[in-house]
Amino acid sequence: MEKEVDGILVAAHELKAPLAVLRQLALSFDDMDETGEHIRSEMVRVSERAIKQVNDLAKIRRLEDGLFEMEPVAVRAVCDDVTRELSYLFDCNRRDLFIKYSNRAKLVTANRELLYSVIYNFLLNAMHYSGERTRSELIVQDYLDKVKISIRDFGPMLPIDVWREIKRGFIEKPTSIAMRPGSSGLGLYIASKFSRYMNAKVGAVRHRDGTSFYVELPISKQASLFE
């Protein structure tokens, strides 16, 4: 299994250079009409999202070195930053994003960089697998002694085998997800790895009309001092 994961990381590293070149080429085009400008913008954004996933894959091996420190993180601020980055993608694909914050505990114990990637990948999944003019939901709430971040989509139901892997607490490797075309499960694999590193519980709920992915994070002790 470790060799297989190492192979994924090597492939990801090899992809980063051509993706960066593609982005740079797109940025170099000048004097374009409105249609050309739109295509160029999409090329840049697609390459940037791919580079982000490549960078996340590279971080997986670095987790073993313990380089990502845990600290008090303002969970709503991270969610705001992710939704701001992905708002154009939801708009362009005619998807609506509903956001609700009801958590009293504002700080969680996490690594901000890794938590950002977890939320980013869950939201990206939700955008891809919701139908046009349907909405995705991002809900942050208190749950027992933790803060729970849930991302709900209204796409195809998550296959039972993938759900069982997530219920177990982690996904061993990226796998194709039946009824969710175009998915390698890469985003879920990354989110699973990062959540496990942060001692956060990751899970999923299967609905008749979609799936909810969630991550539960411990409330920061620093936060409890001010309550």
Protein described:
With 227 residues, this protein is of the alpha+beta class. The protein has two domains: 2-63; 71-218, 2-Layer Sandwich (Heat Shock Protein 90), CATH 3.30.565.10. The chain has seven helices and seven strands, in the order ααβαββαββααββα. The protein has helices at 2-28, 34-62, 75-92, 112-129, 160-168, 186-197, 221-225, and strands spanning 71-74, 96-101, 107-110, 135-143, 146-153, 201-207, 210-218. The protein has a five-stranded mixed sheet with strand order 2-4-5-7-6. A two-stranded antiparallel ribbon has the order 1-3. A hairpin with a 2-residue loop joins strand 6 and strand 7 (210-218). Helix 2 (34-62) packs across helix 6. The protein is globular, with a radius of gyration of 18 Å. The mean pLDDT is 80.
Query: Which consecutive residue ranges, at least 5 long each, have pLDDT under 50?
Result: none
Major sheet characteristics: 5 strands, mixed
Radius of gyration: 18 Å
Residue share in helix: 40-55%
Share of residues in strands = 15-25%
CATH superfamily of the largest domain: Histidine kinase-like ATPase, C-terminal domain
CATH class category label of the largest domain: Alpha Beta
CATH architecture of the largest domain: 2-Layer Sandwich
Helix and strand composition category: alpha+beta
User: What is the ordering of alpha helices and beta strands?
Assistant: HHEHEEHEEHHEEH
